[in-house]
Amino acid sequence: MELQFSKDLLEKRIIHLTGKITPTQADRIIFSLAWLNARSSEEITLYIKSDGGEVLPGLQIYDSIRLSVAPVIGVVLGEANSMASVVLQACRTRKAVRHACLIMHYINVTRSLSELIDEQKRHDSLAKSWEYQNSIFRILVKRSGMSIEPVEKLCKESRVLGAEEAKKLNLIDEII
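Above: the chain's sequence. Below: its structure in C-alpha cell form.
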C-alpha cells in the first residue's frame, strides 16, 4: 500500500519528506528528484512534515534540490524542524500551511566513546561539526537575507516559529 501510494504521488510529481531524515530517506528523495528531472522540467512539489534528522543526508537532499532543473516547490504541512527547515530553504518557492511551524537549532553532536577519549579524533570531529553548522548558517543567511547574528541567535534559542513569524523572517515565501 505504502509503495503504491508513493508511486501514485510520484506520477503527479509529488515527493514527501516525512519522519526522520536518514540516509535511506535521503536516497529515496534524491532518486525521486533525478527520476522526475529525467522525465520533464515541470514543477515538482515537496511536501514536508518532518522533525529533522541527520545533517549529512539533509545537506545531500538540499544539494539535490538546488541542482534540480525542474523548480521544486516546498510545502510545510505541520512541521519542518531542524534539518527539514534547511531542506525547505533549497526549494525555489517555500510555502507553509497556516498552522505549520519551523524550528532551527544548533546541530546535535553525538560521538563515540573512542572519539571522546582520543584528543585528535575529538578535535577533528568537532571541527567537522562546526563546518556543517557554518554551512547551515550560510544557507539560512542566503535564503532569508538576514545577517549572520540573527541567524545564530535563532539557532541558539531553538525557538518554534509559526508560519507568520517564519514569513516575516523570510524563511518561507507564502502562507497557504
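The CA atoms of residues 119 and 145 lie 38 Å apart.
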